[in-house]
Automatic annotation (TrEMBL):
Official protein name in the record: Peptidoglycan bridge formation glycyltransferase FemA/FemB family protein
Pfam families according to UniProt: Acetyltransf_6
UniProt KW keywords: Acyltransferase, Cell shape, Cell wall biogenesis/degradation, Peptidoglycan synthesis, Transferase
SUPFAM superfamilies: Acyl-CoA N-acyltransferases (Nat) (SSF55729)
Gene Ontology MF term list: aminoacyltransferase activity
Example GO BP: cell wall macromolecule biosynthetic process
Species of origin: Methanococcoides seepicolus
Amino acid sequence: MIEITDSFDKVQWDNFVSDHPHGNIFQTTEMVEVYRQAKNYEPVSLAAVDTVSGDIFAVVQAAVICEIRGIGSSFSARSVIHGGPLAFESREGTEAVSVLMGQYNALMKKKAIYTQIRNIWDIQESKQMLESLGYTYSDHLNYLIDLDRTADTVWQSIHKSRRKGINRAEKAGIEIKKIENDAELVDSYNLIEQTYRNVRMPIADISLFRAVYNLFAPTGMADFYMAIQDGMPVGTRVVLKYNDLVYDWYAGSKKEVEYVDEALVWCVLKENAGTYKTFDFGGAGHPSKPYGVREFKRRFGGKEVNFGRYEKTHDKFKNRIAEVGYGIYKKLKCGQF
C-alpha cells in the first residue's frame, strides 16, 4: 500500500534521486535548504512510500514562490516543479506517481494559484497521467550540448560566428574567473538583476543566490563565473552541477560589452568537457514566440529538444485576478512606473 508523506528519511530520498536516470539537483534535499533560505520561497516535498517495506516509489519537490506579501499573497503564489516528479518505470512507480501528484494537487489548492512543471527530459510516458490530473502541455524548446568528449571536439561543433566572438572577447582582454567572496557575489547578482530589468523580467531576491553559493559552491554543485575587463565585472554565469548534468541557471552581462556571453559559455563548456555528459542551456522558449537568446544558444552546436512544460491552474478565479495584478507588479519590479 502506498502512503504520501512529507516526513521521510533524507538519505533515502537523496539515494532515490541519485539512482534515478533523470535524478537532478532540483529534486535533492540540498535544494530544499536553498529554498528555505531564499526570500519568498517555500519548499514542498512529498514522497510516495510503501507502507510495508518503507521503500520510496516516487518523489516530487516544488518551490512555492510568493513575491507579494500581505493581502495580495493569496493572489500571487505560484508553484514550480523543476525536474520532477521522479518515479522509476514500473507498475508500482506508475501507480505511486499518480497518487503522489493527486495529493500534491490537493495541497496546492491552499498554497498556490497554479503549478508549472518545467521538464528537463522527455516525459511523454507521464503525459496521459498528468493530463488526467488537469495539467495542460505546451511546447518549450531547449538546447543540450554533449560534454562527453574533449574540449577541442566541443569547440569544433560550435558555429563559426560564436567561435569568432569567443576569440574577439579574448582579444578585448575579457578574462573569466570564479567568484571568491560575498562582495563578488553581489557584483554577480547586480549584473543578473540589471539584465533581467533590461528585458522587463523580475528576478529572485539575492538570498536565493547567496544560499546556492554558500551551500552548493563549496561542494562543487555550483559554479559562479565572472567576466572581468579592465578590472571591472562585465558579465556573469551561474551553473548547477549534479551527477552528469551541468545546468545553465542564471546569466547576466553589460549590454555595451560585446562577446562577454560567448566567453562565459565557452569557459563553462571547456572546463566541464570530458567530466560531465551534458550541458543544459536552461530553456529556449516557446517555438512560435520570440525569444531573444534562442539563436545565441542554438549556435553553440547543441541538440534542439522540445521537452515542453505542463501547467495546472488550482484556482481559476484568483488566477484571473492575478494575471492583471502580476502585470502591474512586474512593471513596478522592473522600474517601468
